[in-house]
Structure formats: structure tokens, C-alpha cells
Specification:
Layout: H1 2-7, H2 15-24, E1 33-35, H3 56-65, H4 70-80, H5 85-96, H6 103-114, H7 119-128, H8 133-148, H9 176-179, H10 194-205, H11 210-220, H12 225-230, H13 236-258, H14 279-283, E2 323-329, H15 336-343, E3 350-353, E4 363-368, H16 386-389, H17 416-428, H18 437-450, E5 453-456, E6 459-461, H19 465-472, H20 486-494, H21 499-506, H22 509-512, E7 517-522, H23 528-536, E8 540-546, H24 550-562, E9 568-572, H25 580-590, E10 595-599, H26 624-639
Parallel strand pairs: 1-9, 2-10, 7-8, 7-10, 8-9
Antiparallel strand pairs: 2-4, 3-4, 5-6
Helix pairs in contact: 3-4, 4-5, 5-6, 6-7, 7-8, 8-11, 8-13, 10-11, 13-26, 17-18, 19-20, 21-23, 25-26
The protein binds a DNA duplex through residues 292-293, 295, 327-329, 331-334, 361-364, 407-412, 415-418, 445, 448-449, 485-488, 491, 493-497, 525, 599, 601-603, 605-613.
Length: 641
DNA sequence: CACATTATGAACGCCCAT
DNA sequence: ATGGGCGTTCATAATGTG
């Protein structure tokens, strides 16, 4: 609304002045900081192949490697086509599940196989245990453990125990999350605490054999000091929950490492791993309609139209704390947002175009569990259209270029050759009052495609990096200097949040947490979330920031120091470093996270990608599952406290 | 090797006329 | 219903340059 825009409320954060002050005081860092950076180049570990087209024989090998017979695989591929690996897998699973698998069962199998377990093992576990997810998981954990034969010998976890290619899940690294307790000094096997008996009984009463339960608890570390220090009063449900979360984490890791060209499995429709769900839920076929993008794309409301939706009810499993905020491109391939939403506790995505916040479009989906009442926008308001953002270009802007907003700011810019071709074309018809229609069309098409702006007579040019910074809501020179190349500036900026948009959604945190928040920021990039919170005046007590790019981490750290943050910034290079142990450590140290925020890579979702728009299972975009993994770990651990 | 430059469509959703 | 036109898109890979 306009009154908000002009009047502004009691927000005392003046971004520009603030910035100058901050830079002026650079060199007097009063904040503590620390760097945990032991795996800077982990990205290279998943380099190998995966880009090449999936030849039929390669695909057969792939499924044969999963334990299916070649004959069955060939048949399944023939029946379902080579493209749809999900369908093929489904067919294979149905075929292999000995007991006339009900559809819900086969979907369960699908899910667990996707986590890295072998088909045989999953089928067995489902048969032996109840059909509840956690029970199956415990069964699987026990089974894996038995086969590994490593009870009480977790130090061997590093070793590649398994020599059977058909069972990649037996890789020694698979379960080392349970045993990797090096970081906890005083780790020792103590006598069984009095609790243990009780838990054994409970697990047994759930249908597990005493032996199974005992092994599972041992594996989970119920007896250990480590575990006691984590959860002094671990309940059975919590135990199975932990197994589930940690299993998923490790399974994902193992999956990535072992079979990186295998698409990550989607959960079957209607499946959720929440402990409260039961099989009944799975048996209902999904009647959910595919998620549709709103038009206009204003989500639950934007400042100029704030009350589109005043209230929403979140699924119980989604409720915070912790609050979470996930972002990605709105125009993703079909089904991607359905999957994302399904994983993120069935929260409906909020699709917003940043053209309602700044002078450039940016169509994004946000899945979050934040309240949506009483949001407020940042002040000062950023330029709302091209003229305000680039006043100097106005002089050269022809009347037939009717753009008021730029298109999405991307990671690449137009070539000089192109702008030269355009200039030539325009000069051809310089005598006339206006270029002919076909020239206008050509010029405008290229302008929209490359976000060109007028910088002189017949002269068009791509945006400068500092202009992109401004449009996205970052302080000027945010990405400048410190050894970053111009190309990388465009790339980092193009992958970032639009700060004003995100800040609008996060603004509700200010009143909720007057003392500040602890933030887990995944895929932080150049720190869009941190900048948004800072500009909102939300104090950041502890920020754990994860980004694979060193230059990005440097940008965030540099900004953190220059803005005189009082809190602590901890950064990691890779989300893989955040296993259950690390997260537990940090939660204990900080008293939990209040916000888990991040936008996972869009490389394989974005329309601009000509080469590998592979969807959510693509090489980079599948890191979404790490966002979910980590969020779910945090949620489960915090529910215990 | 780091960095800069350049060329390289397809997959959607939407709209509107059949 | 349906099919064609239209507009948009957090990019990758090959090559050049220094």
C-alpha cells in the first residue's frame, strides 16, 4: 500500500547511510568470527561423468548394478521407454517385490531403494517389520549393520567393507554418522544406563526382536555418553526419528558417491516421512492437483497489494520453530515444485515476482512456514521501475521501447558483438523518425532476452555489476574486489536473492525475536539472507553459513565484518559437512536455530540452461535434498528440547 | 591457468483463434 | 478441446586472450 511506502513505519534502518557508516568503521571489527573450512574443493569429488546422454546399455548396466536381472531390465525399458527412469524403476520394483506388492508397498520400496538400500533388503525389511516407515528403517539399519559385521567396531567405518557391487549401501561410509564421534571428547562405552532396558522393552513391544532393538540402539549410540549428552531422555519415537533422519542423510551421501549418474528418487506420491503418517495415508491415491503459478505472481501479498491472503493454515508437521525459508526458480520443469512442496512438509509455495519490489522481474517460489500477517517492506524503497533505477538511460530511451521493468537478472550478459549488430541495424534507419517494425521487433527481442539498457544514441549495453547489485538490493560494491573476477560477480549476483522481496517475507521475524536469532543459512551465496535480515534490523546472534564458493564466502565474511555485526559468523564450504553430529553440536552450542534459510542450486531447473536442464534430480539441483535433510535434522533435534 | 568472450534452444505457461 | 503463436528464463561449453 502506498501509505506504507511513503510514510514508512518506525524502521530506523537507513540502508544507504548505514552502509557508509559501516564502511567508515571498517577495521574495527568487534565481532568474533571463525572459519570451519576443511573441504573447499569437495565439488570436484562428484565430477566424473553424468552429462553424456544415457545410452540404453548404460541404463541397463545401471539397473543391473542395482540388483535387477538384465532380462527384466531390458523388458522394463522397452515397456516404459528409455526416458522415464522413474517408471522403469517402478516397474522393476513391482516385478521384484515377491509378495504381490500393493502399490503402496511398492512405493515404499521405491523410496527406500532410493535411499540407497538394495531391493532385496528393503523388501525383506518391509515384510518383517510393520509397514511403518520408522520400523522399516530400523530394520534396514539393523540389517546393514549385521551384514557389515561391524558392531562395536565403528572405527572401521572408514574402510570399504563391502565387495559386492550390488549393494552400494554397504559402503563403510554409509552409517558413519552414527559412529563418527571423534569430535566428542571423552567418548567411551559406559555401562548400560537404566534407561536402556526400558527402551529395549519398548522397541520390542513395537514388534522388533530384542536382539534387533538392542543392535539398533547400540548402533544409534543410546548407551554412549555421546548420545546421553545429546538427548538425556531419548524416547523411542525420538530414537526411530533419529535413525530416520540420519539414515536419509547418509543414504543420500552414499547414493551420490556411489551412483552419481542415477537420478535421485522422488518420494512416491502421497508419501511423507513424518512419523505421524501411517500407511493409510499412502494408500490413498493423490488427488492433489499439480501446483499452478499464480497470475499475477504476488504470492500471499506484496507491498502494493498486501492483503491477498490474510491467513493460512500450515500442516502440523510444518510448524516452527524452527522457521524455514526455501527458495528456487518459479519456472521449473513440471512436477519440481510438487516434489519440493511434498518434501517440505506439504507447505504451499509462495510464488512472487520481484518486479513488485524492484525494477527487475524475478519469478521465484518460496516455501516457508513464516507468519504472513503484518509484513512490512524495507525502507528506503528501491527504485520501482527502470527510469528510477537508471535515470541516466532515460535520455536515450526511445518511445517504442515500452519496458518499465527489466527481465530476470541472470548470470551471463550479452556479447559486445550483439550490441554492435543492434547499433548497426539502428543506424541503417537513422534518417527516419522511427525504425521500421521489423527492426523494432529485432531490437526489442534482444533487449528483453539480454536485459539491455540504453546508454547512448542507438547504443544498448548490458547492466554493469554494480547496477545489478543495486537492483537486487545489495549495497554497492558488495561483490566488488577481494579477488573476484567480473565474470564471477555476474554469476554470484545472478544466483542470488532479491533482497527486498525476501526481506518482506522475513520482516515478521523482527517483532518475534527482539533479542535476535540464530540462522542456518544454506547455499548462502553472497549472503542475500544475511543482508535482508540486517537491513530489517533483525539481530543475528549466530549465523552458520554454507556455500561451496570461496569467493562467495569471502564476500559474506567481508560484509559481516564491515557491517560491524555483533554476532558470530561460522562458515562451511559444503552442505555435506553438516552431518548429524555437527548440527547437534551447533544446536547445543546455540540453543537451536530460529531460521533455516536457503535457495538450493537452480542450474538444472532454470530455463536458460540449454545443456542440463535435468530437473530436481540434476547434478546440482538435487542438493535440494540436502536442504531438506539438514532442515529435517534440525527440526527433529529441536523437537526434543 | 585465470579470465573474458561468444554462440548455443528448449521447456514451459499463457493467450487466442479454431 | 486444441493447436499454434508468443514471451520468458538464478546457464553451459567451447574458444580466445593474456
Amino acid at each position: 500500500m502506498d501509505e506504507n511506502a511513503s510514510g514508512g513505519d518506525s524502521d530506523d534502518i537507513d540502508w544507504n547511510t548505514d552502509d557508509e557508516l559501516e564502511i567508515a568503521s571498517y577495521g574495527l571489527p568487534s565481532c568474533s568470527s571463525m572459519t570451519v573450512n576443511d573441504g573447499e574443493t569437495i565439488a570436484g569429488s562428484t565430477e566424473a561423468s553424468s552429462s553424456a546422454g544415457s545410452s540404453s546399455s548404460k541404463m541397463i548396466d545401471h539397473f543391473v548394478g542395482m540388483g535387477f536381472s538384465e532380462e527384466v531390465v531390458a523388458k522394463a525399458i522397452q515397456e516404459n521407454g528409455e526416458q522415464n527412469t522413474d517408471l522403469i524403476l517402478e516397474a522393476l520394483l513391482k516385478h521384484s517385490a515377491s509378495s504381490s506388492a500393493s502399490s503402496s508397498k511398492s512405493k515404499l520400496i521405491d523410496h527406500f531403494v532410493g535411499m540407497g538400500f538394495s531391493v532385496d533388503m528393503v523388501a525383506k525389511a518391509i515384510q518383517e517389520n510393520d509397514c511403518t516407515v520408522n520400523a522399516v528403517l530400523v530394520g534396514l539399519a539393523i540389517h546393514v549393520h549385521d551384514k557389515a559385521g561391524a558392531l562395536g567396531q565403528s572405527s572401521q567405518a572408514e574402510q570399504h567393507i563391502n565387495s559386492d557391487q550390488n549393494s552400494p549401501e554397504l559402503d563403510g561410509s554409509f552409517l558413519d554418522g552414527f559412529s563418527d564421534t571423534d569430535s566428542f571428547e571423552g567418548e567411551e562405552i559406559t555401562n548400560p544406563d537404566p534407561d536402556k532396558e526400558e527402551k529395549l522393552v519398548s522397541l520390542a513391544s513395537m514388534g522388533y526382536s530384542v536382539q534387533e532393538a538392542s543392535i539398533a540402539m547400540e548402533r544409534c549410540g543410546v548407551h554412549s555418553k555421546y548420545c546421553d549428552s545429546l538427548w538425556p531422555n531419548t524416547s523411542i519415537a525420538e530414537l526411530t526419528d533419529f535413525i530416520c533422519a540420519a539414515q536419509m542423510a547418509k543414504a543420500a551421501d552414499a547414493l551420490l558417491a556411489e551412483i552419481e549418474d542415477k537420478p535421485r528418487p522422488k518420494p512416491s506420491n502421497g508419501y511423507h516421512k513424518h512419523k505421524k503418517r501411517r500407511m493409510l495415508d499412502y494408500e490413498k491415491p493423490p488427488i492433489d492437483e499439480p501446483i499452478r503459478l499464480p497470475n499475477p505472481m504476488i504470492g500471499f501479498g506484496v507491498p502494493s497489494n498486501p492483503d491477498v491472503i490474510v491467513h493460512r493454515s500450515l500442516p502440523e508437521a510444518a510448524a516452527g520453530p524452527p522457521y524455514f525459508y526455501y527458495e528456487n526458480v518459479a519456472l521449473a520443469p513440471k512436477g519440481v515444485w510438487d516434489t519440493i512442496s511434498r518434501f517440505l512438509y506439504d507447505v504451499e509455495p509462495e510464488f512472487v515476482d520481484s518486479k513488485y519490489f524492484c525494477a527487475a522481474a524475478r519469478k521465484r517460489g518460496y516455501v516457508h512456514n513464516l507468519p504472513i500477517e503484518n509484513r512490512h517492506h524495507l525502507v528506503p524503497l528501491p527504485p520501482q521501475n527502470i527510469y528510477e533505477a537508471l535515470p541516466l538511460s532515460r535520455k536515450w530511451w526511445p518511445s517504442w521501447d515500452t519496458r518499465s521493468h527489466l527481465n530476470c537478472l541472470q548470470t551471463c550478459i550479452a556479447s559486445a558483438k550483439l550490441t554492435e549488430r543492434i547499433r548497426k541495424a539502428l543506424e541503417e534507419c537513422d534518417g527516419e523518425p522511427e525504425p521500421p517494425h521489423h527492426v523494432q521487433k529485432f531490437v526489442m527481442d534482444e533487449c528483453r532476452k539480454w536485459n539491455l539498457v540504453w546508454v547512448g544514441r542507438n547504443k544498448l549495453a548490458p547492466l554493469e555489476p554494480d547496477e545489478v547489485e543495486m537492483l537486487l538490493g545489495f549495497p554497492k560494491n558488495h561483490t566488488r574486489g577481494g579477488g573476484i573476477s567480473r565474470t564471477d560477480r555476474y554469476k554470484s549476483l545472478g544466483n542470488s536473492f532479491q533482497v527486498d522481496t525476501v526481506a518482506y517475507h522475513l520482516s515478521v521475524l523482527k517483532e518475534m525475536y527482539p533479542d535476535g536469532i540464530n540462522v542456518l543459512s544454506l547455499f548462502s551465496g553472497i549472503g542475500g539472507a544475511e543482508v535482508a535480515l540486517h537491513r530489517l534490523g533483525v539481530r543475528m546472534k549466530n549465523v552458520v553459513s554454507v556455500d561451496i564458493s570461496e569467493v562467495n564466502r569471502n564476500i559474506v565474511r567481508s560484509w559481516w565484518e564491515q557491517t560491524n555485526q555483533k554476532g558470530t559468523l561460522i562458515d562451511f564450504a559444503d552442505v555435506q559437512q553438516l552431518d548429524a553430529n555437527r548440527i547437534e553440536q551447533m544446536i547445543n552450542a546455540f540453543g537451536g536455530f530460529d531460521l533455516v534459510i536457503g535457495g538450493s542450486p537452480c542450474n538444472n531447473l532454470a530455463g536458460s540452461n540449454r545443456h542440463s536442464r535435468d530437473g530436481l534430480e540434476g547434478k546440482e539441483s538435487s542438493l535440494f535434498y540436502d536442504y531438506f535433510r539438514i532442515l529435517d535434522l534440525v527440526k527433529n533435534m529441536m523437537q526434543r528440547n
